[in-house]
Input
Amino acid sequence: MLFDPHIHMTSRTTDDYQAMADAGIRAIVEPAFWLGQPRTHLGSFEDYFLALLGWERFRAAQFGIRHLCTMGLNPKEANNSRLADGVMELLRLYVEKDGVVAVGEIGYDDVTPAEEKYFAAQLELAKAHDLPALIHLPHRDKKRGCERTLALVRDVGFAPEKTIVDHNTEETLPLTLASGCWAGHSIYPSTKMDEPRMVALVKQYGAEKILVNSAADWGVSDPLKVPKTRDAMRAAGITEATLEKIFWHNPIAFFAQSGRLDPADLGSPIVVDQRQLHEGNSVLRGQTPRVD
Amino acid sequence: MSELSAALKQLLASHCSQSGPFFERAESEQALPLGVGFRVLFASVPRRLGASAPLAPTLLVTGARPHFTATDYARLWLMLGALRGVEAGRQSAWLLELFEAGESGEQVSILRVLPLLPEPQRFLEAGVQACRTNARDVFEAIVCENPFLVEQFPSLNFNQAIMKAIFMEVPLARVEGLARRITPELSRMAAGYASERRAAGRPVPKDAEFLAQYGAT
Output
């Protein structure tokens, strides 16, 4: 059984869900994110949050996959002061919804003062609501961004064991692990991290607090990077116990800190009934429904 | 009408066969720059004016660049006229709204002609927002062949834009006046990126090497 702890399914198709289920993915976390361009109305955020909690959870379940999500104001849109305060108000409500297992993805992008303000405020929000945090590392000036991220987590007094620092590379991973935070790795077709490098990192650093995700979204990305990386590690002789830890037990242990995820429940299969509807809407388009 | 507006009108009238009806319609809508009519007019320029190819370089318009299209000139003309109808304190917000509500072609036109608007530093936010996009044509409109980037961007945003250009493989040779803004901080960021690429076993972009080593003896 595999867990993809960071994937943006609202941007993916039912073919992706089917392929993910066939490859053994049983649970996913979809962090709230931006849509590739900035939203211009507060209501767009609320409808997006509702879609994560409603339709997307339903779609995933129709393919036997448990869908959990995180709620947050992403750093790119944190720069829009006209909307950011309103989104923070919305978040106070939405982080308390069932199925929300962390505040995220939050962090730095351009490393502006506005980004820092809402990053810190959302760590405080996570603290106040007793939730973990999922932090995105910036892609430009990455090492410095990682240092600043870890410094902010420390300054806010946020528990490192309740923090994922995501999109690590060879240069940021030692910093992340030394801080006591969990370390996410996004396996991408041509940027971020790839499978052979991830194998080398696990051989060097082990499996403790290590997470692997596809971070698949609306860009060139691959929702099967979690099973592909597992296969690459297996081929490289990494033990089955280590694989189980990285691809199943670690994400569960981390997100279970939200108190909204029952490890035993997660391990039991979802009974798929594709005759079901969500607000009158089915994922099927004339196909014979799968009923387990 | 300002000298620039008059020059733009003359330029468009001589290059676009459909400019007569366009200007006629524009004169009435421009009086209401906050209305839907203006937005419709602004959006419809390529179809109504029938021109999307670059116009030959012109001496009529100071600050024009060879890649400007008739559409860009027409939208500049529309914005100049509309700004006269918006009270001074609302003008930067007005432009940002026009930018945010634009499809990518409208956004490209706005960004290209930003430096030709009066007191362009007021419109910085649109330029900075454009650098957050991953849509290449929009990003290039502010970063490439556009003096606004070098002249108006604060160093934090400037450095991020340059690093993003390297990331998106937009050649730095297209950044007008880049050398004026290369600082030790920008060189450090480029060196950091080069180091990250080497650690990942990936090739280091030439532009990152260039910036990292800039000024080194």
